[in-house]
# Entry
Amino acid sequence: MLVGVCDFPGSYAFPPAGYGGIERWLWAVAVGARAAGADVHLLGPGWLTDLEHDWVRKPVRLEDLAPGTLAERELRDSRYGLLVVGHEYPSLPAWTRTWGQLDCDVATFQHSPVFQHSPAAFDGRRSRLYCYSPEMTERYAEHQPIPELAVHLGLDEKEPPAVAGTDLVWLGRIDEDKAPHIAARAAQILGRRIRIVGPVFDETYVRRHERLLTADHVKWVGELGGPAKTAAIAEASAFVYTYARSYVEAGAAVFGESLRAGTPMAALTWRDGTCAQAALCDETGAVAVADPEEDDETAAQKLAGAIEQAEGLNHRRVQAVGMQRFNPVRHFQAMATRPC
# Structure
């Protein structure tokens, strides 16, 4: 099978060194497809040029091709079996017009909880939408979504053998939606140190929770990528996952990143059916479900209990399960198979 993995205009490079959602997912699919024996073309100008020594890179975007041009004919003559794209593309008329000339399947993963697709974007067979959690599947039910755990990979982020770590770690963008202050308070309740890894997206949020986020037990690491990012996760005793009451997580990369590194997860959710429940099991983590009406202190107390539970898990077993559950080859094969 010939697979085209399409970039899209964005602020992150393809593949990204540290952060990015769709970008890391597209790279994981490309890696998984090639490992599964497929031929892979990286379509679009956003892919790093230094990939060209090892990958077929075609700097063309379908939405930029005019009808009947040589570039369109060359794309059609390539005979792609599957295009893997960002979730915006199947709702973009210029893109779908060119795709209609190619006679191939298209697959995408829902990385946003709010993006609105065109009514005819997906038919569940030739054009397929994949969703991470029961919560997301329900939100996009009209598009016949297929449940699937997303796999994300970055550059130079190969996981070392699992070890039992020391301090707690929280990783993500630092803002109101991700709510790391609750993780900081849970660590404080337990008398534990916690490393906060990630870029600040909201200075106002940081100032509002300054007392907790700058307490002595909290170490700010900043944004990391590559081996440093993987090490920050692998060397932790548990990964602490939080988000705000009103936020819907479409499919966070951190679940796969943490489990593949052998680090169990302690997750706080505000309802059932979320990404945390979809990604974790009794062998890989603990999920604390708080009532949205409860205050942050009560939620932090529940999260502290989940941290204690998660730290008792076997790191090698966590990694073994994580490597299977978030395997890029398995992920590609699941998406490449057209439902009956």
